[in-house]
Amino acid sequence: MKAGFDWPALMRAGLYGLGLSPDTFWALTPAELQMMLGSKAGDGPMLSEGLAALMAAYPDTIKDQDDDG
What we know:
- It is built from 4 helices and no strands.
- By secondary structure, it is mainly alpha-helical.
- It is elongated, with a radius of gyration of 21 Å.
């Protein structure tokens, strides 16, 4: 049996749970619907260690007044 979308459950969640109109529901991308439904999967929140790593990888720089680039 091929796995796929559970369309009846998704339609119930979108039309009844979120109160979307059919046109709005069918216009959504799967990613938009997942975001609206509040996906339980994925990464956790960024903590201070993650922020520190990003700041080290991409430090803020101040352009030199004489620098044209």
